[in-house]
Amino acid sequence: xxxxxxxxxxxxxxxxxxxxxxxxxxxxxxxxxxxxxxxxxxxxxxxxxxxxxxxxxxxxxxxxxxxxxxxxxxxxxxxxxxxxxxxxxxxxxxxxxxxxxxxxxxxxxxxxxxxxxxxxxxxxxxxxxxxxxxxx
Length: 136
Description:
Helix content is about 70%, strand content about 0%.
């Protein structure tokens, strides 16, 4: 983890984000995309997986050093696997290999964004929010 002043708060926020994603992934899809079939957007679910995992990867890259990104990627992959395992036990959801593939593509996109400069963003936010000493 990066040397963050508010590391505990970042962890709590990260867990809250993961819980929100898990709840959304285990909720009936009709709650989020009621007209998906009629609109012919059968791939929108995969886009949603990819964007979600890109966001999660960038989020957590804000708290971890680049040297830990491989662990971040494995953690995100495990989280995607957990979602698919949980979905197979629900009558109104299906576990799909293509969902996991979309997660992987999102993780890769998130890592590219992190390596391109977004990584460590939470440390920059903390520094920006820190009051600067006044110069007289």
